[in-house]
Structures are given as structure tokens and as C-alpha cells.
Amino acid sequence: MTTILVTGGTGTLGRLVTERLRADGHEVRVLSRHAQPYAVDLRAGGSALDVALGGVDTVVHCATSPRGGDEQAATNLIAAARRAGVGHLVYISIVGVDRVPLGYYRSKLAVERLVQESGLGWTVLRATQFHDLVVQVLQALAKPPVVLLPARVCDQPVEVAEVAERLAELAAGAPAGRVADLGGPEVRTFESLARAYLGATGRRRAVVKVPLAGKAYRGFRAGGHLAPERAVGKGTFEEYLAGRFGGGTDGRRG
């Protein structure tokens, strides 16, 4: 079996990728800012990154931050991977990074290009939004007594474990370039997702749809972040809610 390094290996996605790869018999190194023995800040790089990559066959790059720094982190990772002779770099991106002009999406697209131009064997998978990210957004929106939602916006949430399974499969294989997107099983209006969340968490809120302005909103409204032709995920939003909130106690506390 191969030696695989997972960046962001303690995060929501990276942790599951790590578990799956280890279950399949691979030697897996977890790289994050605080996880020993490979505690590395990718934005800073340095000799610790070279140590982490020594003898590694494949890197699965899950580390990311909407607060910025992804491009510098990828630049440092790619340079170190070249020095180490890594044969395969797998990167997880987001559906719509080339169609929705959101700052974080632009950064993800820039990293895709760095990966493609790295000189390494590479694979890029784009996925739609994870269920837990949708819940994070809805939790914030549901704090006031009225839930204000962007009008005419849909989403296609996917189960993170399914994305992890696909990434592990890709990491175990040969470099494949840009592979088919992975979308959740249903394209849903944001209103229907909000009402499902409110019901699962026992909240009673009025829901109001508000038209917004800006290029990013127009991109989301046009469905640039969706992949209806790749609705291959199985786990539904309601199944995720049931598993996370059960009868709604956790939601009422929040």
C-alpha cells in the first residue's frame, strides 16, 4: 500500500478521508497546524513540511480556509511535493468556482490552476456544499425571529462521508485530471432546506425571501454552484438532520 499525506486531516472532510484510507490499509500521515507529529502551517511552509512529505507517494489536499491564504498554502505544498518526488496530488474543490464570482471560490479556482500547472500527477474533484455547511448557514440565519433567505436560490447539499469515500478512491488510483463532479442527490430551494432545518431543530420562525444584489448572488441564483446532471450522492438533507438533531433538542439549545 502507498504512503498518503492528508492536509487538513483533522477537519470535517480530512478526518473521514484519513479514516477511510487507513481502513483500506494505507499508511496515512495527517498534516494540520496542530496535529503532531506533522504540525505544519502550510501558509508558512518551512522544513517541517519537507519532513512531512518525505517518502510520501500521494497527497490529498483538503486544507482550506475561507479567511484566505489558500493560494500561498498550495504554492508551498506543491514546491515541497516536487522536492519530495510526490507522484500524485489530489485536490478537493467546489462546484461552481469558475461560474460564481465569490472571493473564496476565486481562491479555490486559483488553487485548481496551481495544481494543474504543478508538474505533478494530479486529480481535481469538485463537490457541492456539504450538509453541515448548509446547517451552519441556517443556524446563523435562524437566530433572529425572522429567517431572511436569498430569493430564488437553490442548493444541492451532499453528505461529506460520500465525498471522503470518493477522495480516498481517487487517492488510491492513478492521476486522473479533472474528474466528474460529485453532487448531492437533490437540487432544493433554499427555502425548503430552511424549513426542513427549522422543523428538525424545533424552531418556530417566519421565513422571508429577500432579493439581493451583486454578481455573486446572480451566480448563485443562476445555479452556477449546482450539478444537477451529477446528482450521484445518496444521503439526503433530511437524513443528515435526523442523524444530527434527532428530536430537535440540540437545535433548541442553539
Automatic annotation (TrEMBL):
Domain NAD(P)-binding: 8-132
Protein name: NAD(P)H-binding protein
Domain of life: Bacteria
InterPro entries: Ergot_Alk_Oxidoreductase, NAD(P)-bd_dom, NAD(P)-bd_dom_sf, SDR_fam
